[in-house]
Structure formats: C-alpha cells, structure tokens
Amino acid sequence: MHPLITPRRQRGFTLVESMAALAVIAALLAVGIPNMTTWVVSNKARSAAEFYGEGFAMARREAVTRNAASRLVLSPNPNGQLDWQVDVCFPVPAMPCSADSGSWSTVDAAADNDPNAASPFRSIYRAAGALPSAEVLVPTVQPQGSSTVYFTALGWVDTTDQQRLARLTLTPAADLRDAVAPVALVVTLAGIASKCNPAIAAPDSRACPP
C-alpha cells in the first residue's frame, strides 16, 4: 500500500441501528412463528384421514387377496389418537373367524392354517404418534366404545358383529376450525371407508349418511 494512502475506517452498526434491526426481526418472528405452527399442525390434521383410511383399505385388501377374514383394530395411544393394526384369520369348519373365535395373526406370529407357509402374514401395525394430539384433533367412534371392524373374504363387512366400528370422526379444536374441516370415515357394508364432512347437512354430496 502506498505510504500516503490511509485505509478507510470500517463503519459498523451503531447501538440504535442494532436495536432497530432486532426489533424488526422480533416482529417478524412474532407474526411468522404462530402462522408456521398453525400451518404444520393443520397439515398433520388433514393427513389424519388418510392415515386411518389406509388402515381400512389395507384390512379389506388383505381379506380379498388372501381369501381370509381380516379385521382392523384401533387402540388408543399416549397422545390420545388411535393406532391401528390389521390382522387376518383363516377359518376352518371347526373354528370360524369372528370376534369370539378363530386364530388371528399378531405382529409376532402368523395365524394358524396360513396357506402361504413360506411367507406367512403377520399383522401390520401403524402408530399414530405423528398425528396431532387429541387436544388438537379429537377422534370419536360410532358406536361409542367400538374399536374393531371385521371383513369377510369377499371384502364385505361382517355384520354378525353387532358392535362393529361404523364411523370414525376427527374434529379439530376450535382454533383450527378455520384451517381444518372436520372429517369422518364411514365404513359401508361393502367394506369401503368413504370420507364425508359431519358438519355439512344433506343433500350436499359431502354430507355424512344418517
């Protein structure tokens, strides 16, 4: 550097400028973080219907594919949501598959009489831990206290079980109702779980059946 040239002094932020910048950042965070939180929770809440719909569809599919009885079992977990599990059962004349009888598969063991001895079916379990808690998205079942729906080998609902699960409703908390609509999964006698909106009345096609 030439000895006669004096380097320019670097100018930093003043205290006032720093405080102003921090105030702007704080304001942006105050607005952005709640909106981001609502967005994340809303997306998780909307995905809940797909999570449970997958379970109903899998139970019906396994029954038809394996020519067996199947069932979907819901069980509460610590966050208040419902885990699900799909089991199968292969009936024999002396022991039909029902709520009270039959050899049902578990996650650790295959059912008796599974014809696919080389690769027998073991129950499929899915945890609902990634879903919002029941304080955010409230699950209710109809009839009250029901937790299981049974499928025949044709994929139809086994109507001999009088306490079979017929509907699962997911209701968002009050502060989410503008972002997330309530949804119900209604299990038809044909074994199809169809989505509907319990807050809408007939004759709107989105309404739930009576």
UniProtKB/TrEMBL annotation:
Annotated membrane topology: Single-pass membrane protein
Q: Which residues form the General secretion pathway GspH domain?
A: 56-173
Q: Which UniProt keywords apply?
A: Cell inner membrane, Cell membrane, Membrane, Methylation, Transmembrane, Transmembrane helix
**Which residues span the membrane?**
12-33
Subcellular location per UniProt equals: Cell inner membrane
- Which domain of life does the UniProt lineage start with? Bacteria
Q: Report the record's Gene Ontology biological process terms.
A: protein secretion by the type II secretion system
SUPFAM superfamilies reported in the protein's UniProt record: Pili subunits
The cross-references to Pfam families, in alphabetical order and at most eight, read: GspH, N_methyl
Is Cell inner membrane set as a keyword in this record?
yes
Alphabetical list of InterPro entries matching this protein: N_methyl_site, Pilin-like, T2SS_GspH
One GO CC term, this protein: type II protein secretion system complex
UniProt keyword annotation of ATP-binding present = no
NCBIfam families assigned: IV_pilin_GFxxxE (TIGR02532)
The family this protein is said to belong to:
Belongs to the GSP H family.
* The protein, known as: Type II secretion system protein H
| Species | Pseudoduganella buxea
